[in-house]
Amino acid sequence: MKLVFEKSVPGRRGLTISKSDVSTSINLKADLLRDKPAELPELSELDVVRHFTELSRRNFGVDTNFYPLGSCTMKYNPKVAERIAAYPGFAHLHPLIPQLRIGGILTQGALQVLYETDLLLREICGMAGFTMQPMAGAHGELTGIMMMAAYHKDRGNKKTTVLIPDSAHGTNPASAAIAGYVVKAVPSDDNGLMDLAKVKKMLNDEVAGVMLTCPNTLGLFNPHVREICDLIHSVDGLAYYDGANLNAIVGKVRPGDLGFDIVHLNLHKTFATPHGGGGPGAGPVGVVEKLVDFLPVSIVVKREDGTYALEYKRPKSIGYIAPFYGNFGIILRAYVYMLMQGDEGLKRIAENAVLNANYIKEKLKPHYDLPHPQTCKHECVFSATRQAAKGVHGIDIAKAIIDAGFHPPTMYFPMIVKEALMIEPTECESKETLDAFIETMIDIAKRAQTDPESVTDCPKTTPVGRLDETKAARELNIASLA
Amino acid sequence: MPYISNTDEQRAAMLAEIGMTPDDLFADVPKEFLCGKLDLPEARSEQQVRDHLAELAGKNHIHLTCFLGGGFYDHFIPSAVYALTSRSEFYTAYTPYQPEVSQGTLQAIYEYQSMICRLTEMDVSNASLYDGGTALYEAMMMALSATGRNKIIIDDSVNPIYRVMIQSYTRNLKIELIETQNEDGLANREAIGKQLDDKTAAIIVQNPNFFGCIDDFTDLSEMAHKKGALVISSVYPISLGILKTPGAMGVDIATGEGQSLGMPMSFGGPYLGFIATRKPLVRKMPGRIVGQTMDAQGRCGFVLTLQAREQHIRRDKATSNICSNEALCALTALVYMSLLGKEGLREVAQLCADKASYAYQKLTSIPGVTPHFRAKWVFNEMVLDLPCDAADVIGRLIEKGFAAGFPLSRYYKGMENSILVAVTEKRTKQQIGMLAEALEAVL
Ligand SMILES: Cc1ncc(COP(=O)(O)O)c(C=O)c1O
């Protein structure tokens, strides 16, 4: 398919712009100007609409079909949330208005959304306060670790290291390192869980904290999680909860009750905000009482007269980590979703997500190796080692799944499972959809034994076949310049 | 049961098939961790929730005539932008890990990267960052890593919101962060020159700067490069419809807030951080990058590339921790720029400058209202001195239906009477005239 630039026709216009109604036309000093206009394409509105409609048809979303991308939680994104986010009263609100005199009064609706989202998340997570500012999960991690550092500084603690399990998502070690800590990886035990004995061994006064995902990236709940948090607390360390997998236990288990001090949530995972093909996300961070003073500024408070206001004077705060109040449009969608669920709805999310994952796990167990066969939570991780012995690797299975009309699971993550296929069905999917997917997976497993080439040849139904990634990196072409 | 498809019968059948009971599903969670009923509001229907949110939306006063900017602007958004970005094949997708079923997102990102390069006249761009402030922070981290040095000089004509963000992010790092004070509205060459040494990783500046003044950093780039330091410039993308580009100025890393490229103000987000740099620095860039390649049949396609920089491979050694970025906002910017095209973007930028210049004439002809800086070229924003406290005046103008601007006293000492006024192409001659009248009346 042609690039948008290749469709350009000199002189064509896509938008009629209002004529200037002012008499002045300013001639800026020539050496402050660019020598020639930016080489943007020249297209009609119809050209643009056709181009992007065609591109959209080369894309796969949750609305297209089953999208069991493990850890990413591709659940259905309710249309009502999209509609509400587009309400002019939210979409056209300038973020600086509440910072003007009497401006707070003019933004009460938006401030109430932020305030109530904070309260809802506190109750759901068992935390004492939240910041809405982080703009994705990883940004929340960085914010959380910055608060960890501020806490230790405030206590006069000399801490250098953060403990992170080897099964952790890559953002965990990256965030801790960027915040200035040394990362020590804790090996998983044979059950795929963080090894308690190893934690004990690695624990010393230099440990600032631990970062855990629970259930972890294998979809397993660590029954020793409280003991790990207690151990960390024994050296005045803090326990960080990566909430990417909260959807497995939401409404049933609260990270605060497990002993965690800091929690980030990926709103697109638990609270059904769309992922947009790679963002925008939102990564609110909650903390326990002893850390509330360190939350970023500003935060929304409710005054005695019932009005909402922004509070800035927080001397121990880590400061601003975002220009305003986070990705408000995304927070708003999550707020809508929580209001529609209530307590029972949230519990049903967790129960159905876990049922769907265990259903897939049990049904596929005879056909694929399952390194950790215990009850899983929201996702299960198979290993394609049996198929790999026949020359059919995880990636081949993924491409065969594409030809069957589904999105593939997450491949090759977590890194501690060889040929990992990480399947997360989410609570939304019906038994019919799961059965169709299971049938496909069984068929691929059979073909891997009897006719491996029919799998390694895939995909055949897509606009392009497998792409040469080595060429992409070696002969780097990442922009079409004029 | 909202958004869950299975019926009770189906659930029972599934459990029976795998030989489990409902209790088995959570048997791995120690009983004492199960929390019982949460204190949450009763679940609402779709109709109830829409009514409730319509009421809250109604409490936000969006009908103020907007002369408020500060890096976030009320530009016109063509209808086709939302029509296209709200196609669910785009917005309900994840990061394009499986290229064969994600060519839509991938090609769009490649086109977006190309547009950013063409706009800034830089060589390479990534797929997006969270916002203009974190983009500036990432650029700073890039410079520290690329030079192996630890000193950063930032002029206070850079957006103060971004400067406070950078202060937060650098608090625990071993970095010397020096702030220079602008010289009559432009980056202070003398102060920067004094600070610039062989420990300096980068000089951070902005164009047009927070005061709306237009600068040219060609001289700063020469100065910095002589000392082996980089120049990072934050830039307002609409202004590049007419203004000299960071590329032409010899800037090493260009970043900015992309909200003005088709995104609603949405009370602060989601927005779009962009970053572009020169080829030799490409491996230091944070975040996703899309590259063009081929399949076995020679068909052209797109993939995520240079992934060895990223957190999922390099973990604690990655160039950045970013994972999810702002892909849908990048798509928005791409669609916006495609609709405006070469001439359209130039026209919008020129209209902003023309209307700002008209507003400047109108407002400074009010007795007691004077420009804060001596004759300077401005793009679409200007600092004016009032005869009294600016925050007060702004408050009084809100009552008359105007978001007249931003009081600079919030971030700058000695600027109690100064107001920052922004004018976009959306403002009409009549609205500008009415603002002038209202301002004169409240002074
Ligand atoms: C376990 C885990 N942690 C953190 C993240 C990072 O979240 P985000 O992409 O929102 O930055 C992810 C996202 O995939 C994840 O799966």
Short structural summary:
Chain A is an alpha/beta fold. Chain A contains 15 helices and 12 strands.
Spans of chain A of at least 5 consecutive residues whose pLDDT stays below 50 are: none
Radius of gyration of chain B: 25 Å
Round the Cα radius of gyration of chain A to an integer and report it: 25 Å
* Arrangement of strands in the largest sheet of chain A: 1-7-6-5-4-2-3
Q: Tell me the fraction of residues in β-strands of chain B, as a range.
A: 5-15%
Number of domain modules of chain B? 3
Strand order of the largest sheet of chain B: 2-8-7-6-5-3-4
**Structural class based on helices, strands and sheet pairing of chain B:** alpha/beta
Specify the biggest β-sheet of chain A: 7 strands, mixed
Q: Under the CATH scheme, which architecture of the largest domain in chain A would be assigned?
A: 3-Layer(aba) Sandwich
CATH superfamily of the largest domain in chain B: Type I PLP-dependent aspartate aminotransferase-like (Major domain)
Q: What small ligands are held by the chains? A: pyridoxal-5'-phosphate
The CATH superfamily of the largest domain in chain A turns out to be: Type I PLP-dependent aspartate aminotransferase-like (Major domain)
Strand content of chain A: 5-15%
CATH topology descriptor of the largest domain in chain A: Aspartate Aminotransferase, domain 2
Most residues in contact: chain pair: A-B, 207 and 210 residues
Count of DSSP strands of chain B? 15
Mean pLDDT of chain B: 97
State the total count of DSSP E strands of chain A: 12
Question: What's the assembly state of these chains?
Answer: heterodimer
